[in-house]
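Notes from hallway chat w/ T.B., transcribed later so I don't forget. T.B. wanted the structure written out for a chain they're using in a teaching module, and asked if we could keep both sequence and structure tokens in one place. Agreed to drop them here.
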Amino acid sequence: MSASRRDLLLGAAATATALAASPARATPTLAELQEQQYEPDPLKLVGEQVLHEYPENATALGLDKGQRAGLKSLLNYRSLEDVAQHGQGARYRLDILKRGAWSGSTNALDLEVTKTAHELAVEGYKFPYGDVAVLNLEQAYRNTPYAVSQGTGAFAEVPDLLDSHHQIDTKADAEAYLARLKAFAVCLDGESERLRHDAGLGVIAPDFILDKTLAQLLAFRGTAPKDWGLVTSLAKRAAAKGLGDYEGAAHDIAVKEIGPAIDRQLVVLTALRAKATHDAGAWKLPDGEAYYAWALRAGTTTNLKPEEVHQLGLDQVKSLNAEMDILLKAQGLTQGSVGARLNALGSDPKYLFPDTDAGRAQLLAYLNGLIADMRPRLPRAFATLKPGKLVIKRVPPAIQDGMPNGYGGAGSLDGSQPGAYYINLKTTAIWPKFALPTLTYHEGIPGHVWQGEYSYNLPLIRSLLSFNAYTEGWALYAEQLGDELGCYDHDPLGRLGYLQSIQFRACRLVVDTGIHAKRWTREQATHWFAENNGTTEQHVQSEVDRYCSWPGQACGYKIGHSEINRLRAKAKSAMGARFDLRTFDDAMVKSGAVPLTLLEQVADRYITGRS
């Protein structure tokens, strides 16, 4: 038995009590996983424990069956005790990852990626507030100092998990859904406990964030439980499979357990709203400067300082403005700033879909057409092709006020569930037609949905780890591929929309650091963003509010995109005629998500023919 394996199995006993302390859900220790016949490779054991700590990911990946079927009844609970257990588990695994005598068969990149993720998480757990999401695949894109906000928390995340990912084919599946409904109420109460605790430390979300959050929860509570998607989703799907009537049981849990838990959370949030200030940035938090420095590291997986990121954003906004100015003049738009001209173009009714249900249906049909047009172009950019299973959905109206304007991700490992690309259609007025192609390549193909499918050939722990700067950087690079594959050859406005999108991400570098390091107000950030990018203040406002809740996350996009392009230029220079875009892109996606600090190793192996 290797030293690393022996340490894993013997050392696990020391943390068994803490890791299994929750009366509702016990996370297996590494030793217990070994006893369950999981393979003895230490990285596999680490992967299994991370999967058990965040059981929603087993469902999202289609792994909640067979030996792992018990995970289908569970959720990641969210109390202070649960957060402490996650922190302790991360610290223990990091110790093993650092001191283990790893066998020669262990892939060095897999080890370094896993170690880096745990280092980021452990550093985040030093702050006694908020939510460290680094090791939780479904939420790994964001960390937040607030246990509940307009786009984060059980109320925003659990219903979609149950409706979109929890498959119902058997009575056991339906019973597991009911168990998760009960767990949902536990999650809400756990978050309420943390809200009170964090407020005692001086951590309260800004007033405008709490206003949005309260409005969403009140709207949710204002709907009769019998009409909640939580109830109807189970009832309809179970009936369609001939499994019986589950509506009554689901409704009973909704009325007796979930509704009261929401009411209790409303009481807490209302009390916090009375104490909230309008201060938007992380600088106001306990040890806020250090918190933002960590959040920026987690969001970019670099060691860039806020001032460096801010200046980088200003420089790139200026460069992209010059390029867009040429295209705008070619359209006869010569007067005013680039931002003002873009705003006028984007507000022109001839480029907008009707703000009606019929108009939303037309918009969704247009997005599906863009995907169909992209598919035959992909062999020019990739030597290894994936199915790219994808459905395009509207963000559920119940949570649309607090959610991003677009987001997406790959489907399950077994291919039973397609990837999803969500677009926020609260209003179609923020979506001029020329802005939609680049968004679709970003969220769908060859962006998030496409890239995610490559990660499923990797070891489990690598499929469970995602890094914001890599995944968002790739998705922005996917927008660039849309341009390079000729999607805008006969669509100059579409190319303008693409450049505006790239500049949008450069603006984020300025605004995120402005809010959290330079003490910009919400209004200052919104005005600067809208003025420089030419998007409406209505569009930008939800973006700015998101940055206030997820410090550092918004910076990952452009930082990651710039790094991929730097490495592509390096490969071209080093390889000369040997360089092939298809095999370079393959190397980038087949490596899986990695911190930017490790991505150059992937490129170097490609250059030397070792990928």
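Follow-up for T.B.: Residues 3-205+207-276 form one domain. Might be a good example for the class.
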